[in-house]
């Protein structure tokens, strides 16, 4: 029989409570760990649910009862980025490459359309290529203007977007994609019946023109809403552009209310449209030579005065000054010129500056060093004007080009902010009558105001013209499907606001 010393018995008796204490401590750590993990999981789920709700149920029109007065306040803090939604699981039917043509806003609308086409056909979209061969010859790539990471991540539940094609489809390996422009103003049946079957043979299709390739009207509501989601949520400018644009907005707001005047009296527009009203003979000849220099500008011989009488010319700076005065803008209002170089320079701006001395441009507000990285990049400069125009108290475009339309749509989406859509055909008649002495100033101002009472950005339905998509209202100028919940659309866009043409 083993005899243990008194000391050995004492040591063993001490080990028992020590081991029990260690077990209790481990148990407490496990409980604490489980509680922390459970809390993190619950909060993560809650944040995801809130993000999904905010994404599909925007609060833009809660409590909307009519025309909304523009708020002058701009949020100082940026919202936190939304958590990623789960990627969409689908069978990929092929790869879609697109080359966008035109200026910034024409390309922006095209990108929205091409994302929608990729979603409809279950295609993988390659990050779009931007136009580098237009009049402006801007070398900017997609990620020089837009936040490409946000673009791809925010749409991952709808479309798979990649930066470049897989190597097996590279031209270096001898692969030749099918290159084609889709038919303009096409609906989903065209893409499903005529484009989708081509992918089974070619796997990759390159759309080399993308402007106005999707119909304005008659599209399924879910596709229309996706176009809006891309436009209003996924297409964010780069942080550098956003920061400088917001700085411009804050500088202007610190000085009081301001009007963004999109004065499209630029060399390319005048040459393209053939509008030479107010130009010298030398200037008119210069514009004609430029028109002939660009082979894709198909119309060459243009009678300027006929074009102007049809309302197809941008207003001159002198005409814009008279119209703004007639509309009731005071002399001391800030006017932000949202455009490139005005044809004729300061000489042509003299009348406008005399009427409204507080005329400013981004080049006047910012230090040269702040703009240096954006110079010689017209689309990046246009992005700054886009930010300011969207935030302005009033937006007045003198020509209904792509920027005018896309900015108008953004302002509608943000609460029907005041946008004065000038009726140029009516205005040139009134201007000529006033300038030849037939119409007094009081009668002129009364006629101008009366003709624009219903053209201030109020809620209205898009004008639909059967078989004439170029003449009907543009989707991105008035994306009515995205401006209200379906149950309330009839109240917001009732029969009294209809502009449908039979």
Describe the structure.
It is a single-pass type II membrane protein. The chain crosses the membrane at residues 32-53. With 502 residues, the protein is of the alpha/beta class. The chain has 2 domains: 95-234, 3-Layer(aba) Sandwich (Rossmann fold); 239-497, 3-Layer(aba) Sandwich (Rossmann fold). It contains 19 helices and 9 strands. It has a 5-stranded parallel beta sheet, with helices on one face. The chain starts with 5 loop residues before the first helix and ends in a 10-residue tail after the last helix. The model is unreliable at 1-18, 50-80 and 495-502 (pLDDT under 50).
For this entry, give a set of tags.
502 residues; alpha/beta; Rossmann fold; 2 domains; five-stranded parallel β-sheet; four-stranded parallel β-sheet; 19 helices; 46% helix; globular; disordered N terminus; glycoprotein; transferase
Largest sheet: 5 strands, parallel
- What structural category do the secondary elements indicate? alpha/beta
Strand portion: 5-15%
Overall mean pLDDT = 85
Number of helices: 19
Oligomer: single chain
Total number of β-strand segments? 9
For the largest beta sheet, what order do the strands appear in spatially? 3-2-1-5-4
CATH class of the largest domain: Alpha Beta
- Secondary structure: helix percent: 40-55%
Reported CATH architecture of the largest domain? 3-Layer(aba) Sandwich
Q: According to CATH, what is the topology of the largest domain?
A: Rossmann fold
Low-confidence parts lasting 5 or more residues at pLDDT below 50? 1-18, 50-80, 495-502
Number of domains: 2
Q: What is the CA-atom radius of gyration, in angstroms?
A: 30 Å
What is the global morphology? Answer: globular
Q: N-to-C terminal Cα separation, in Å? A: 114 Å
Query: H/E series, N to C?
Result: HEHEHHEEHEHHEHHHHEHEHHHEHHHH
């Amino acid at each position: 029989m083993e005899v243990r010393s008194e000391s050995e018995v004492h040591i063993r008796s001490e080990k028992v409570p020590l081991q029990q204490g260690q077990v209790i401590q481990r148990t407490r750590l496990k409980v604490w760990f489980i509680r922390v993990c459970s809390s993190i999981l619950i909060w993560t789920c809650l944040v995801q649910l809130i993000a999904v709700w905010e994404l599909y149920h925007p609060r833009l029109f809660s409590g909307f009862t009519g025309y909304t007065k523009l708020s002058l306040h701009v949020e100082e803090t940026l919202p936190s980025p939304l958590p990623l939604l789960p990627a969409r699981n689908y069978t990929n039917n092929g790869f879609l490459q697109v080359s966008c043509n035109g200026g910034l806003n024409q390309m922006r609308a095209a990108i929205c359309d091409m994302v929608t086409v990729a979603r409809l056909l279950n295609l993988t979209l390659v990050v779009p290529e931007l136009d580098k061969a237009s009049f402006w010859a801007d070398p900017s790539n997609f990620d020089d203007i837009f936040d490409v990471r946000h673009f791809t991540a925010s749409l991952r539940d709808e479309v798979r977007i990649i930066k470049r094609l897989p190597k097996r489809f590279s031209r270096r390996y001898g692969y030749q994609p099918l290159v084609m422009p889709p038919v303009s103003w096409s609906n989903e049946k065209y893409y499903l019946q005529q484009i989708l079957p081509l992918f089974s043979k070619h796997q990759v299709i390159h759309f080399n023109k993308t402007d106005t390739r999707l119909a304005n009207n008659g599209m399924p509501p879910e596709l229309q809403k996706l176009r809006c989601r891309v436009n209003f949520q996924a297409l964010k400018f780069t942080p550098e552009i956003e920061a400088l644009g917001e700085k411009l907005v804050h500088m202007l707001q610190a000085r009081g209310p301001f009007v963004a005047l999109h004065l499209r009296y630029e060399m390319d527009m005048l040459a393209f449209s053939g509008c030479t009203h107010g130009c010298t003979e030398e200037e008119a000849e210069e514009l004609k030579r430029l028109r002939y220099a660009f082979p894709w500008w198909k119309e060459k011989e243009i009678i300027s005065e006929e074009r102007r009488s049809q309302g197809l010319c941008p207003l001159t700076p002198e005409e814009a000054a008279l119209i703004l005065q007639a509309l009731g803008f005071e002399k001391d209002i800030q006017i932000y010129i949202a455009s490139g170089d005005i044809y004729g320079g300061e000489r042509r701006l003299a009348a406008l500056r005399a009427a409204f001395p507080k005329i400013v441009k981004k080049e006047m507000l910012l230090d040269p060093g702040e703009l240096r990285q954006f110079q010689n990049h017209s689309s990046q400069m246009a992005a700054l004007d886009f930010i300011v125009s969207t935030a302005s108290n009033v937006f007045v475009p003198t020509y209904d080009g792509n920027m005018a339309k896309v900015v108008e749509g953004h302002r509608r989406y943000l609460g029907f902010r005041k946008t004065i859509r000038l009726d140029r055909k009516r205005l040139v008649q009134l201007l000529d009558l006033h300038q030849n002495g037939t119409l007094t100033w009081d009668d002129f101002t009364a006629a101008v105001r009366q003709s624009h009472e219903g053209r201030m950005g109020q809620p209205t339905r898009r004008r639909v013209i059967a078989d004439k998509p170029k003449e009907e209202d543009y989707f991105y100028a008035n994306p009515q499907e995205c401006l209200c919940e379906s149950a309330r659309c009839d109240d917001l866009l009732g029969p009294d606001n209809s502009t449908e043409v039979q």
